[in-house]
Design brief:
Elements (H helix, E strand, L loop, with lengths): L1 H13 L1 H31 L7 H4 L1 H22 L1 H8 L3 H34 L12 H29 L2 H19 L6 H7 L2 H8 L5 H4 L6 H25 L3
């Protein structure tokens, strides 16, 4: 197992796509600075301003960027034929998949929380003299939301890994994640009550605030999950994707 982990770590950090994905994710911090400067100027004109915190408003950028990393961790091997060499070195497919999941999970968990913390810190430093809605909450109260957001990024990267194994297609896996993240929430809104709120509470974008007890009253009403159920729901997505990927990986020749 140790050799498989080292091999997967070497592969992940030696391909340029990993650093491209990391760079795209790091844009969150840059855009967060520009957003904070923009809303700070508006606050000066209006005296006070309620605005979305950049680490929340720009979270989909971070999620999709590191999901690409998870997808490419396996689909790039299918595209180049490297998967055959990987299976030769690590013939047990369960060990190979577990090694990929551990490496992708640790890399995205670390990168996500570093970028979230940098974005959070930079925005608060810039806005410390301005009366902004997101600047009035102490750090201790925001830590659970930052942790939940980082967990969601890791979960989505592992979903991308599982879907990449299942589809063996970068485009197919990414389209599936886009559907989960952006399309299904819109579809759920058109379901008849109370199924619209019940379905929405189980969808990926709405699980993060429920992890920290955000009531989401304007969107979900009473169709909410307790934090422990929201965490289980969030973890269920990568587990299902990885199990599906493993089943197909075992059944196929490559």
């Amino acid at each position: 197992m140790r050799a498989a982990l080292l091999a997967e770590w070497l592969k992940l950090r030696s391909v340029t796509s990993t650093w491209h994905a990391m760079g795209a994710a790091a844009l969150m911090a840059v855009l967060g600075v520009f957003w904070t400067l923009y809303v700070s100027d508006l606050a000066e004109d209006r005296g006070t301003l309620q605005a979305a915190a950049p680490e929340q408003g720009l979270l989909p950028l971070l999620q999709m960027s590191l999901t690409v990393l998870g997808v490419l961790a396996v689909t790039s091997e299918y595209a180049t034929g490297m998967i055959r060499a990987s299976l030769t070195v690590v013939p047990r497919r369960s060990t190979l998949l577990l090694a990929k999941a551990v490496v992708v999970g640790l890399a995205t968990f670390t990168a996500a929380h570093v970028i979230l913390l940098v974005t959070y810190s930079a925005s608060r430093l810039i806005a410390h003299d301005h009366r902004l809605g997101f600047n009035e909450t102490p750090l201790a109260d925001d830590v659970p939301m930052l942790l939940a957001a980082g967990i969601s990024v890791t979960a989505l990267a592992l979903v991308g890994l599982g879907l990449g194994i299942a589809t063996r297609s970068t485009a197919g896996a990414l389209i599936s994640v886009v559907v989960l993240l952006f399309v299904l929430p819109g579809v759920a809104a058109y379901l008849p009550a109370p199924w619209n709120t019940r379905a929405a509470s189980l969808l990926l974008p709405n699980l993060v605030p429920q992890l920290v007890g955000d009531r989401l009253s304007s969107r979900l009403g009473d169709g909410l999950l307790p934090p422990w159920a929201a965490l289980l729901g969030l973890l269920a997505y990568p587990v299902i994707a990885l199990v599906a990927g493993f089943i197909l990986l075992k059944r196929r020749d490559v």
